Amino acid sequence: MADDNLQILIKRLSKLPGLGPRSAQRAALVLIKNKERDMLPLSKALSEVARYYKPCIQCNNLTELEKCSICNDLRRDESKLCIVEDVSDLWAMEKAGIFQGKYYVLGGNLNILDGRGPIELGINKLVDYVKSMCAANSACEIILATSATVEGQTTAHYIAESLQGLSATISRLAHGVPVGGELNYLDDGTLALAMKARTPVS
């Protein structure tokens, strides 16, 4: 019978997305069999990421510095801000190469049942960010790139209302994003079409 530490490892692995108890058990056994090649380097990588990575102070992207490489990139269009739910959505947009502005990562969507309200998503911080952005750019655009789920649409609507009165054009991803779809599961072509066909928020 496996010892307690191994059971703890399997339970931890089983909580990861895409890994059930059996998959976690197989992964744990593979790691043990390849301790020098896989397990120890993985352990070190996990420790380093846990120690050094944190949210960017400006956009909430993951970074080892105070500001992420995107926020520090002077070549990015500072008059355009794309609001996404998670870092994985930002990565999907960057991989597709369809947006050259700045980002803001909410860290989820509005879901009162899960304890995620405007405070948890940092909506006040977002509003302040947009205010300063629009003050520096006479023609600024806010792109709401939340998922096409009920929660994502509710979040986009709330943000649009919170930004009313500011001198910003507010648009939302349109064609190409299926209802119920999440950005990090879409292919590059679908994302590109959705970005190109974004529509104003009324």
Describe what this molecule looks like in 3D.
It is a single chain. With 202 residues, this protein is α/β, with parallel strands linked by helices. It folds into 2 domains: 4-52, Helicase, Ruva Protein, domain 3; 62-200, Dna Topoisomerase Vi A Subunit, Chain: A, domain 2 (3-Layer(aba) Sandwich), CATH 3.40.1360. The chain is 46% helix and 14% strand. It contains 8 helices and 7 strands; from the N terminus they run H-H-H-E-E-H-E-H-E-H-E-H-E-H-E. It has helices at 4-14, 21-33, 35-52, 69-72, 87-96, 123-136, 150-162, 188-196; strands at residues 54-55, 62-63, 77-84, 101-105, 140-144, 168-172, 199-200. The strands form 2 sheets. It has a 5-stranded mixed β-sheet with strand order 4-3-5-6-7. It has a two-stranded antiparallel sheet with strand order 1-2. Helix 1 (4-14) packs across helix 2 (21-33) and helix 5 (87-96) packs across helix 8. The longest helix has 18 residues, at 35-52. The radius of gyration is 20 Å and the shape is elongated. 27% of the residues are buried.
